[in-house]
Design brief:
Distance between the termini of chain B: 39 Å
Radius of gyration of chain A: 23 Å
Shape of chain A: globular
Strand order of the largest sheet of chain B: 1-2
Largest interface: A-B, 21 and 19 residues
Strand order of the largest sheet of chain A: 4-3-2-1-5-6-7-8
Order of helices and strands of chain A: HEEEEHEEEEHHEHHEH
Distance between the termini of chain A: 71 Å
Oligomer: heterodimer
Largest sheet of chain B: 2 strands, antiparallel
Strand content of chain A: 25-35%
Largest sheet of chain A: 8 strands, antiparallel
Number of strands of chain B: 2
Number of domains of chain B: 1
Number of strands of chain A: 10
Helix content of chain A: 40-55%
Number of helices of chain B: 8
Radius of gyration of chain B: 19 Å
Number of helices of chain A: 7
Strand content of chain B: under 5%
């Protein structure tokens, strides 16, 4: 009996010490890690829009973050959007509350600068202090509206959808006409070599150029990827070793076709395709509702 | 096994040659076969294993008198897991470029046999300094093995070295597959064994000459 007790105590103490060490390290590294992830995300976003080390982003390109929240007041559910607005003397943030059909209800000016709005904790604090005491807010998702000199040029939509294993986190980039500019898979747990190939250029670049209309009924076909199409897709990522006009022509012939599934990963391919369709469809619907509500409420948004 | 009598330098050389983890002790063959597809992968994983091995060996050597004998293995696992997590967090925060390259590998190290084995066989009965140098030797031995395997498989399988095209064509794509990894490990073991036989033969001859038996 004494033996069991000694062992139990020894194990508990070891676990506590280990946890303490990990916790201390985490406290010191959390901020720096977050900062690095932010830089990485920004680089990925700019990359999706077509900018990179070979083509630096223009000075007047601004990425406006719009955060969607579910607002709960007792039993009633509402939708809220945290948007960046004009202000004197500086830019600020406002929280626009809509009912579930999209009707404009109210707007609250927040004590938050757009840069601070990147952090989820700061956002929540500002929201709770601006709204009535009993209201609860729940973060839903974010959409990023890229503006070039005041005009909307592109949209970046982070989203999450079920894959073959667990969830797949991806970012879809659309241009102003909702045509796909790019797709980047951020996180997934698919099998390496099979479903994991969704991160490869020859799969995800197939979505580039698909129009909004085509996306509505985009399917996955179980046919092998033609060799010329594969070369064009792989050169789209980083510099081209094919003459630009020839690759553009080849790409055009495949633009309105369906997505070629990955060998041995039909379910993962279908999951990504359906995920991209869902993200785009929901976004188009929500953007329309948001624009109507913003106009109705005369909210001085920056986009 | 009683505490070691080797000098620190002998411990390092031991880890590299006599008791090379992959080619002599035949431990941690999973990563040796699966991840040594390129020189870069092998190098990155080798560095990560080096750090985890050294830190774990030192930690266990410091607390060796307080470990209850019946929970040795859980204690080793806990130590290794803690160090792997700490290194993972530090890399993610302060060396993001390196983290991008080897982040996925670092988390796998918890399951490696070589580290647990070394803690059990060496660190729990030796001094801090000896454990430190043994960890260095084992870590470098593992890295050496991974780089050699990676080099052969990358050059012969993909025609590149560290990502740079050296051959311009792919001699035998077979080398990139795990089966080739096993063949190569076996081949390297044969090389090591032959080298050891030759070394011992020469040592015996030298000793015999010294004793005046043979001229």
């Amino acid at each position: 009996m004494r033996e069991i007790l000694k062992i139990t105590i020894a194990l508990t103490v070891s676990c506590l010490l280990a946890g303490l060490m990990i916790g201390v390290t985490f406290i010191f590294t959390a901020r720096a890690k977050q900062h690095n992830e932010l830089l990485n995300t920004r680089k990925t976003m700019l990359g999706l829009l077509g900018y990179g080390s070979h083509r630096p982003a223009p000075e007047d390109l601004t990425l406006h973050q719009v955060h969607r929240y579910i607002v709960r007041e007792g039993d009633t559910l509402r939708v809220g959007y945290l948007v960046p607005v004009r202000g004197n003397p500086r830019k600020g943030c406002a929280f626009v509350v809509l009912d579930l059909e999209g009707g404009f209800l109210e707007q609250h000016r927040l004590k938050l600068a757009p840069e601070e709005a990147l952090d989820a904790e700061d956002r929540k604090k500002a929201l709770l202090s601006a709204l009535k005491g009993s209201t609860k807010v729940e973060f839903a998702d974010t959409m990023i509206i890229a503006c070039l000199g005041g005009e909307r040029t592109a949209y970046l939509l982070p989203g999450e959808f079920p894959g073959f294993k667990t969830f797949i986190k991806a970012v879809v980039a659309l241009d102003a006409d909702f045509r796909v500019l790019g797709l980047e898979v951020i996180e997934h747990e698919e099998d390496p070599g099979l479903g994991g190939e969704i991160t490869q250029d020859y799969f995800k670049n197939q979505f580039i150029g698909k129009s909004f209309e085509k996306l509505k009924n985009l399917q996955v076909i179980k046919e092998p990827l033609p060799e010329e199409y594969r070369r064009v897709l792989e050169s789209m990522g980083s510099g081209s070793d094919l003459p630009a006009r020839e690759s553009a022509e080849i790409h055009k012939t495949y633009q309105d076709k369906d997505i070629h599934a990955l060998t041995g990963a039909t379910i993962s391919s279908a999951a990504v395709t359906n995920g991209v369709k869902a993200i785009t469809r929901k976004f188009a619907y929500r953007l329309r509702i948001l624009d109507e509500a913003l106009a109705a409420g005369n909210v001085p948004v920056l986009f | 096994m009683p505490a070691t009598t080797k000098t620190n330098l002998q411990l390092v050389v031991n880890g590299l040659l006599n008791e090379n983890p992959i080619f002599r002790l035949a431990l941690s063959m999973c990563p040796a076969v699966g991840i040594s597809t390129t020189v870069a992968n092998g190098l990155l994983l080798g560095v990560a294993v080096l750090f985890v091995q050294v830190f774990s060996s030192c930690t266990i050597s410091l607390i060796k008198n307080h470990i209850h004998p019946r929970i040795r293995i859980p204690t080793y696992t806990l130590t290794i897991a803690t160090w792997v997590t700490v290194i993972d967090l530090l890399l993610a925060a302060y060396l993001p470029a390196a983290y991008q390259a080897m982040g996925i590998f670092v988390r796998l190290i918890v399951a490696f046999a070589i580290i647990t084995m070394r803690l059990e066989v060496f660190a729990c009965r030796n001094t801090l300094t000896a454990s430190f140098w043994d960890g260095i030797g084992m870590g470098f031995g593992f890295m050496f093995g991974m780089v050699v395997l990676g080099a052969v498989r990358e050059v012969l399988g993909m025609g590149t070295f560290l990502g740079y095209d050296v051959l311009g064509f792919r001699p035998m794509l077979f080398f990139v597959l795990p089966a080739a990894g096993f063949f190569l490990v076996g081949f390297m073991m044969a090389v090591f064994n032959y080298a050891e036989t030759v070394y011992h033969r020469r040592a015996r001859r030298a000793a015999a000459v010294q004793a005046g038996v043979v001229k």
